[in-house]
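Re: weekly structure request thread

Next one in the queue (207 aa):
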Amino acid sequence: MMMLLAWATGILAFSLAQANVGLRVGAAQRVDILLTALVDPVRTHDASQALVGIGSRDQRVRELVVLRLPSLLRDAADHPKITTDVLYEEVRVAGDLRIKSAVPPLIALLQMNNENGGPLTMTRQLELRDDPVGRALCLIRDDASLGLFDPLLKKTDGHVRGRALRVLVCFNTPASKLVLEDVFRHEQDEGIRRYLLAHNIGTAPEI
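Done, posted below.
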């Protein structure tokens, strides 16, 4: 019993010490601590929650994350064996904080096998629930990045093209609709044409 009490007391003291450090350190040190934790599979979830919470309130913290998170995502794109949990949490931070500088590495990640999987339903597809990378891109919704999707839309890999199309459908902006209209005009795959028609892109041929 005494050992259990001592253990609980130690944990509480450690937590309070961490909280006090968080109050004292500046934005740069706080971001250093959290980004180090973000790439640790054991601490990544808590770190991403903290980054999103603090970054949404503290503009200086957000600015530092904007500068540093894209390099972590580029590392993930360059090293496919990175722990999936870490990747998902990095992607979540990018999307939840609407970090536009993260868009290029996120688009690169669309070409990799990093979806969650799950039951295939219209709602899950529309909300990109099983595609954390695609969902982050949709949350950021950066029309200035639309040109970066061109290489993916021209790929022969139907899976990659499909992911890119679902993201652009989720964008649902006038600019993204223009891109999709152009895809529809030149698309030979009837499955993709039907998908776009179901989302009010293109015009069905008259019978």
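Residues 2-24, 117-126 have pLDDT under 50 and may be disordered. Residues 5 and 11 are 10 Å apart (CA to CA).
Next request, please.
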